Amino acid sequence: MPVLETDSAEILKLKGLHLYHTNVSNCSMRVRLLLEEKGLKWTSHHLNLVKRENLQEWYFRIHPNGLVPAMVDNGVPITDSIDILYYLEEKYPTPSFLPTNMTEQAEVRHWLDLAGQIHVKGVKTFVYGVSGLVTKNRDDMARYAEMEPDKELVAFHWRSLDGFPQEEIEEALTILESSFKKLEIRLKKHNYLVGENYTLADITWIVQYVLLERKKFDFSPFPYIQAWAERLRTRPSYKLAITDWQP
Ligand SMILES: N[C@@H](CCC(=O)N[C@@H](CS)C(=O)NCC(=O)O)C(=O)O
C-alpha cells in the first residue's frame, strides 16, 4: 500500500484528512464517495489538471507521480485511489463497505483489481484518445519529463499531444467493452456487484460509468449497468461526492 514516509514539515503538520483531488476525475470521485458514505470530515485541496496545478514541486512531495487523488491523514500521505479506499476502510471501519464473508471480500478485491488494471489502457486512453482531453502542453513537457519518474506516463502524455494510434484506441474500446460485459452479467441478476449490499466494488465502478458516460462511451448495450447507475445516483453520497463537484 503506498503509504509514504515524509520528512516535509508542511505535510507533517497537516491535521485530519486532506484530499488532493480533481472535480471530474473518476479516481478522485471514488475516494470522495467513500468519505461521504462514511461521514468523515475532510479538507479539500482541489487541483485543476487542465491548468496543470498537479505539476508543482510541492505536490510531487505528496504524490511522487503528480497524480490525483492523494490523501494526507494526519501528516501521512497515501496515494492511489484503490489503496486509499482500503486504507479508509481499515482505519475507519464503521460503517463498513467490505463484506464480512471471505468469498465476497475476494470478489470485491477482484473488481477493484480489474478497475486498477484497465485504468491506463482502457479508461485513460479512451478519455484522452477518443474525447481529445489534453492535460499537458508542449512547452511544459520537458519540465514534466524531468519531474515524472514514471516514463510510461510521460510517453502517454506525449501521445495525447501527438494523437493516439488507432490500434491503441481500438484496444481501449475492447478493454472497456469486455469489462462492462462482466458487470452487465453480474447486474442482470443482482442489484450490486458483490453480495446484496453496496460495497467498495460499486464505489469503484460507478465512477467509471460516470466519467465514461460523460465522454460518450456507448452504454446502450448495457441496460442493467444503466439501471444500477440510476439506483446508485439516489444515494446522498452521490450528490455530495459527484453531482456537487460537476463543473
Ligand atoms: N492508479 C491511480 C491513477 C491516478 C490517475 O491516473 N489520475 C488521473 C486523474 S483520474 C490524473 O491524475 N491524471 C493527470 C496526469 O496523468 O498527469 C489511482 O487510482 O489513483
Describe the protein in words:
The protein is an alpha+beta fold and 247 residues long. It has a domain at 9-91: Glutaredoxin. Helix content is 54%, strand content 7%. It is built from 12 helices and 4 strands, in the order H-E-H-E-H-E-E-H-H-H-H-H-H-H-H-H. The protein has a 4-stranded mixed beta sheet with strand order 2-1-3-4, covered by helices on one side. Helix 9 crosses helix 11. It is globular, with a radius of gyration of 18 Å. The relative contact order is 0.15. The structure holds glutathione. Glutathione is lined by residues 25-27, 49, 54, 66-69, 80-82, 119, 135.
Layout of helices and strands:
Blueprint: H1 9-12, E1 17-21, H2 26-38, E2 42-46, H3 57-60, E3 70-73, E4 76-79, H4 81-91, H5 102-117, H6 119-129, H7 141-147, H8 151-162, H9 166-189, H10 200-214, H11 223-233, H12 236-241
Parallel strand pairs: 1-2
Antiparallel strand pairs: 1-3, 3-4
Helix pairs in contact: 2-4, 2-10, 5-10, 6-9, 9-11
The structure holds glutathione.
Glutathione binds next to helix 2 and helix 4.
List keywords for this structure.
247 residues; alpha+beta; Glutaredoxin; four-stranded mixed beta sheet; 12 helices; 4 strands; 7% strand; globular; binds glutathione
Q: Could you spell the SSE succession in H and E letters?
A: HEHEHEEHHHHHHHHH
- Could you tell me the number of beta strands? 4
Q: Regions with pLDDT < 50 over 5+ consecutive residues?
A: none
The distinct ligands, each listed once, are: glutathione
- CATH level-four homologous superfamily name of the domain at 9-91: Glutaredoxin
The CATH class of the domain at 9-91 is identified as: Alpha Beta
Residue share in helices? 40-55%
- Rounded Rg: 18 Å
For the largest beta-sheet, the strand count, sense and barrel status come to: 4 strands, mixed
CATH architecture of the domain at 9-91: 3-Layer(aba) Sandwich
Judged by helices, strands and strand pairing, the structural class is: alpha+beta
Strand content: 5-15%
Work out the helix count.
Answer: 12
Strand order of the largest sheet: 2-1-3-4
Distance between the termini: 32 Å
Shape: globular
Q: Give the rounded overall mean pLDDT.
A: 96
